[in-house]
Structures are given as C-alpha cells and as structure tokens.
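Please describe our next protein:
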Amino acid sequence: MSGIGKGVTTASILKILQAKGHKATAMKIDPYVNVDAGTMNPVEHGEVFVTDDGAECDQDIGNYERFSGQDLTKNNYLTTGKVYQTVIERERNLEYDGKCVEVVPHIPNEVIYRIKKAGSVTGSDFVLVEIGGTVGEYQNLLFLEAARMMRLKYPGDVLTVLVSYLPIPDMIGEMKTKPTQSASKLLNEAGIQPDIIVGRSSAPIDEVRKKKISTFCNIAPEDVISAPDIDSIYEVPLNFDKDKIGERILAKLKVRKKKATDLSKWKKFVQRTKKDKKQVKIAIVGKYFETGDFTLTDSYISVIEAIKHACASHGYKEDIVWLSSEKYEKDKRKTKELSEYDGVIVPGGFGKRGVEGKINVIEYCRRNNVPFFGLCLGMQLAVIEYARNVCKMKDASSSEIKASCKTPVIDVMAEQKGHMKNKEYGGTMRLGAYDCHLEKGTKSHKAYRKTKISERHRHRFEVNNDYREEMERKGLVIAGINKKRDLVEIIEIKKHPFFVGVQFHPEFKSRPLSGHPLFKAFIKASTER
C-alpha cells in the first residue's frame, strides 16, 4: 500500500551499501502521467523536492539525499509522462529508423536506458530503483516489465526487494502474513520473484512468521527483513543492518565485501536524538496539511526534517505544532496564542488562500519578538507585512495575490510573464541552485560563516526592486542578494531575536549529520526564548 515506507527502505539500503564502502545512487520512478512532480497538488502527493539542476521531484528524492549525503540530479527521477514524452519525441525525430514504435519493448527499453544512465553518470556500483505505487496496479506494470527484462538481460546483476505490510488486527492480536503472500503472488504474475521481502508492521517479525513467509513466498527465512514501527526513520538503516540486509544483497549479487558496515556517525546522530530531553516548541503555519479529518505532514516533509536536524545539533527535541493560516484570517486576535511557541515558521506555497492569515502571524512575530523564519512565500509575505505596517504602504501586496494591486512590493519575474501568458506552467519556474552574496554583519552571514552561498529555488515572484530603497530606508535589511540579477534573496530586521526570510528553500539542503546553518540559527534563537 502507498506510504508503507518504500522510499525510506530504498534510502536505508543506499546508506548501508555506502557504509560498506560501495558507491551507490538511487532513482525514483513515479507511475503518473505528469512529466514531473511540479504540477502535482502537495496535499494529494506531498512535497515537491527540487534538485540543484532544477528537477521537480517526488519527496523520496529528498530522503535519498538526506540519507546518502549526495546531491542528486534529474537523472534520478522518472515518471510515466517523461518516458512517453521522450519516446514520442524520438519517434518524431526518426530515431527509431521507421520502425513501428510499440509500448513493449520501447517503453521498458527507455526505462532501462535511464536506469543505466543514472548509474553511469554517477559512476555508481549500485543503482537502487524505487518503483512507486502498489504491486498489481495497472499504472506501474510497464516499470515492472522493465525490471523483468533487466533480470533476463543482466542475469545476476538485478535483485528485487518487495516492501509489504503485515497487519496486526486489534481484534485478533496476531500478525497476519496473507497480504504479503498476495503481494508476492502478484509480483510473480508480473514475471518477478522477490529476492528479499521487507515486512513493515507495528512490531518486529517473529521466527514463526518469517518461516511462513519463506514457505509461501519462496524465499529463505533470512531474506525476510523485519521493519517495525520506530520513533525515527533514521533508525531504519540500523535495524536493517541487524538483519544483515547488506550482506544478503552482496551475497546474492556475488559482489565482494569491501569492509564491515560503518554506521558509527549515523548511530551517534540517532542516539543524540533519543537522548534529547529538552524540548523546543515550533509552530508551522501553513495551508497544505489539512485533508478531511487528517493532517498530512508530507507537504512540508523537508521542513520537518530540517527542524529535526537543527534541534539534534543543539541537544533539543522538536515539538512541532501545525497551525492553519486560515484561522488567523477570520480573527486576528487569535495570533496572541503564538506567544505559547518558541519559534514560528511560515513555509512556501502558492495562491492567495490563507495568505492574509500568514501576514497577521508574521506581524505578531515581528512586534512581539517571537523568532520567525519565512521560506519562499513566507519571505515574500514578511516583505508585504513590513511594507504595510512599517513603511505605511497600505496597498502593498503581491501581484500573485492581487493582480491589480497598486503597490506590488512582490511582483512576477520578467521572464515569467511570457510563460504565464502562454500558460507554460510545467518546469518553467525559477528552479534549482543559484548563488547568493551575504552582507557582513547580518544574522545570515553569521550563520553561514561565509559571504557566498548557493541555495535551491522554486518560485515565479520576487521582491520588486522599485520599492526596495524605500523599505531599506525604513529599516528592512537586505541580507542576501543574487548579484548577477540583483535579486533579493534574504531579508532580516534588526533588534529582533531572529526575523529572517529567504526566497530559496534551505530545507532541501539540510542533512542529518550537518544541519542547515539557517535552521540551526533559528532553532538556537528559539531555544533561547
């Protein structure tokens, strides 16, 4: 089933193979007809992760980067739409020499080509390929066909891991293996026998259940890997290592063992997160996490993980609270409850829904010295709040929020106007890594400890330079700019514990063993509060 942990499983195996001295990379295949993740609804699909080279990807790419410490590229992400688009373009360019182009074998062959490319451009010994969706779905059949064809074409070099669910119904109290047996059977029907089965459950798999899965799924008991619920996803590689999944993979692929698994630094990080008793209470004010009666935190998963990394570096445990921005639109007085929190984050987003509530939240944080961190849209709304309430530009707004606003302190970028006019939305934003020059003496410069940085972007709107001088004159600090385009990247205000807004997404570059400088500075200010 979806959300069972395929991405974390892939990232964990990647980490283990690295820890054994092998060079490995990972690739996510999404079965959607979307060409990339950029046009997908974050409430339905979760966060859109952006790479240095500007690829808009599924959030699993973020897990791969965080676990491996690598910066991945567009070669590490693939969708059904991208495959079909490429094959059709090649057909139009006569690259198939006039042959009839068919779904099989040409679509699976394109998938195989891209898997091999992901390995060759990174010089990797292993490519871990996560196929999204559920076994038996029509959507991913062509990717399973590619896996089947690879097993035939490269015997001994391809191994299949099935991640399956083992429920423990409350009314029975016994772990049931039947869903996993069915999943294995469906995989067999696609022509693939799983080599390893990772059993996800609320509790560890006992020997009785391992033997039962072994009997009915045609694998050895030691190839059934237990994946019980745990407090932190960062414990998963340590759990897998106990079941010797790395050794099983190397033995099956007949790859010589380079060294014993060295996860010592990773283990220390996990232990540190467990020992942290002091808590810091952080409010995330957003609009992409309410889905019916449930809260979908996947929309801001990189922000959550960046908070965790920063808290661990300071010896604190995060206490994250989700606040809907819309409730602060209806009643501004409710912002007083923000005094309960040690710090407030306003993350990125699009459209006008909930923005006035976020602006009210930002105003409260500025006036009452609550540490504030604005990301992308959060930074733009901080500029609007400052323009309205400090610079007395009463009509200040963004042309994204109000197309006819008289004082667009945030306006669409020049090159974006043509894209929007022609309705060219997919893959056309300002995407990927861009340089930023930091002003000495600012909180941002102090956090990074250098004057030139590179961060990842995903936006169409920018601070309007027509109003920049006036806002600076009234005290707004432009702490970082892109010199090539003279674009505002970071804003701050003085005489405040921490009030920083960034046009980029620093959460994409945060890593467990090296938290992001700005998140660490924000958490430090929050703990001092």
Remarks:
- The mean pLDDT is 93.
- The radius of gyration is 25 Å.
- DSSP finds 19 helices and 22 strands in the chain.
- The CA atoms of residues 187 and 482 lie 50 Å apart.
